[in-house]
Amino acid sequence: MVLVFAENWDGKFKKSTYEAVSYAAEIAKMIGGNCVAVTIGNVSDGDAKQLGKYGASKVLSVKNDKLNGLVSQAYSSVIAQAAQSIGAKAVVISYTYTGKSIAGRLAVKLKAGLAAGASALPSSANPFTVRKKCFSGKGLTDVVITSEIKVVALNPNSYQVNATGADAVVENFNATLNDTDFKVQSKEIKKTSGKIALTEAELVVSAGRGLKAPENWTMVEQLATELGAATACSKPVADVGWRPHHEHVGQTGITIAPNLYIAIGISGAIQHLAGVSSSKVIVAINSDAEAPFFKAADYGIVGDAFEIVPKLIEEVKKLKAHNN
Amino acid sequence: MKFLVCISNVPDTTTKISFTDGKALNSTGVQFIINPYDEMALTRALEIKEAAGGTVTVINVGAANTEPTLRKALAIGADDAIRVNTEPTDAYLVAHQIAEVAKKNNYDVILTGRESIDYNSGQVATMLAEMLNLPCITVATKLEIASNEATLEREIDGGKEVLTSSLPFVASAQKGMAEPRIPNMRGIMAARTKPLQVLEATGDEKLTSSVAYELPPAKQAVKLISKDNVADLVNLLHTEAKVI
Fold first, then answer.
1. Which of A20, A140, B32, B208 is deepest in the core (most CB within 10 A)?
2. How many independent structural domains does chain A possess?
3. Do A316 and B14 touch (CB under 8 A)?
């Protein structure tokens, strides 16, 4: 049996959830048994049964007012109890910030080896071998989990969603909650409102020092809006305060793997590339033809960003207008 | 206030990575440093200690060749260091070693980086917290401690969350928590004589093993488009790459 934690945000699933369920369903085919999903919080039964499409045969729904926020410690306890109740030999979670806050704890509870940040299906079920990135994307490693129970935390945007199944059965699951799991109290949630979250974005427009001043980001934001992309930046730009730190992608910032990464006026230092090298398609726009980014990019334009970006915005507008 | 800061010994961020026979990192010519996120955690611990008093101990699970990295942590300002003498080949093993040390020492705050830049797993903080039955706040960008309560800010999907926790607790540091310090000559001199205790490992249970390594597939050469034909780029992204 395989258990998958189907993460929700305010009761709704996102693509990374469907990726995790699709992935878990494939693992169930490899190791035998069914794929069962567990949801925590206010997910409607109508939404929960949809997980069947992605391969879950059953959904265990845990509803408790104490679990509406991300109480990481209690979440890992609930998931561990669900895993034990179905006799799961493998547990899959998404390696989102939520997943990062529970993965290790869950693994210890189940005395399970953990492959954190898996980027593909296990290459073999026995030994259970999972590929993940290492050295911040500069390498790949095959991790063998040797314990009886396996926990895999799947990187978002690295597995294809597969929606071919039927509705799942939804059951309520009563988990035991311990007071000691509630020592951390949430005081305030600051949502990055109205914008696409960088770690989940399929398209990202990013800019660096080549833009010369913070006010020049208007065109970057406009391009992102036209594309439906998130915005990001390089480290030097975040360091001088032109852009917020949460936009900094790179070795010491956020690691992303979007379908398209457009780098404007970023030279492409090795530390920056470490954070974006997993992007499926990279476009570099830089006035310096020798910029290292051109070695890492799929498409490039050598030239002045202030000339090229406005043209790019116009062309994207035309494409969108044409497609509509 | 007693701090324990967990230090990973990792290749410098500028390292060009290569592997020996696909079995291990080729460490020839590689310079090893304190994992950058661990350094942020260490700096924040020192800032709080300097304001409120206490001690900062650093711990590393590793062989003797990691000691220069621990000495650097002492040069930055840690009071003493512990090295648990075993190869850190599995997160569970590492967390277990640190937990065994922590059980004997009543630390108020245990900090790690949000992940090490070599294995990028970010597992040790939560594993350690579970082993010690402590709360854990991961990917924390802020940490303040006042009258036995900590206030932290952590990254969550789609934003940030402000939280409070009782002490003791475990937290993993993300950029924003503190700006790393460059050790001065006095710190470097003092580090030579600060205590560095070597402990033998407790048990050797591992739950995972990295069996093979390879470099990511090489990129094909970039397709350059003239700056006068920006439309071509949009066209290629739409029809060839199919990403927009």
1. A20
2. 2
3. no
Cα A92–Cα A97–Cα A102 angle in degrees, nearest 5: 55
Domain that holds residue A227: 198-323
pLDDT in tens, B50-70: 999 999 999 999 999 999 999
In a domain, A192, yes or no: no
Enumerate residues 211 to 250 of chain A having a beta carbon within 8 A of any beta carbon in chain B.
227, 245-246, 248
Would residue A225 count as lying in a domain? yes
Task: Give the span between the Cα atoms of B171 and B100, in whole angstroms.
Answer: 18
- B217/A contact by beta carbon, under 8 A: no
Q: Please judge whether B207 and A113 are an interchain contact, meaning their C-beta atoms are less than 8 angstroms apart.
A: yes
Calculate mean pLDDT across residues A102-115. 98
A30 and A176 share one domain: yes
Q: The CATH number of the domain where A238 resides is what?
A: 3.40.50.1220
**Does residue A153 share a domain with residue A209?**
no
Q: Which residue of B has its CA nearest to A69?
A: B161
Spell out which residues of chain B touch residue A101, defining contact as CB-CB under 8 Å.
Answer: 126, 136-139, 154
Q: How many CA atoms lie within 13 A of B202 on its CB side?
A: 12
Locate the DSSP E strands across chain B: 2-6, 9-11, 19-20, 24-25, 32-34, 55-61, 80-85, 109-113, 136-146, 149-156, 159-166, 169-173, 196-200, 208-214, 223-224
Write down which residue in A116, A150, A182 finishes a domain. A182
CB spacing of B208 vs A113 below 8 angstroms: yes
Closest CB from A117, A180, A274 relative to B121: A117
Q: pLDDT band at A324, cuts 50/70/90? A: confident
User: Which residue shows structure tokens 């010690």?
Assistant: B132
User: Is B218 in the A-facing interface, judged by CB distances under 8 Å?
Assistant: no
3-state secondary structure of B17: coil
Which residues lie below 8 Å from residue B199, measured CB to CB, with a gap of 6+?
Answer: B82, B83, B84, B85, B101
**pLDDT digits over B225-243, tens only?**
999 999 999 999 999 999 9
* Domains, chain B, ordered by start: 2-216 (3.40.50.620)
CA A24 to chain centre: 16
The whole-angstrom separation of Cα A97 and Cα A103 is: 10
Residue A222 has pLDDT above 90, yes or no: yes
pLDDT for the residue A195: 67
Assess contact for B244 and A319: CB atoms under 8 A: yes
pLDDT in tens, A151-204: 999 998 889 999 999 999 999 999 999 999 999 999 999 887 656 778 888 999
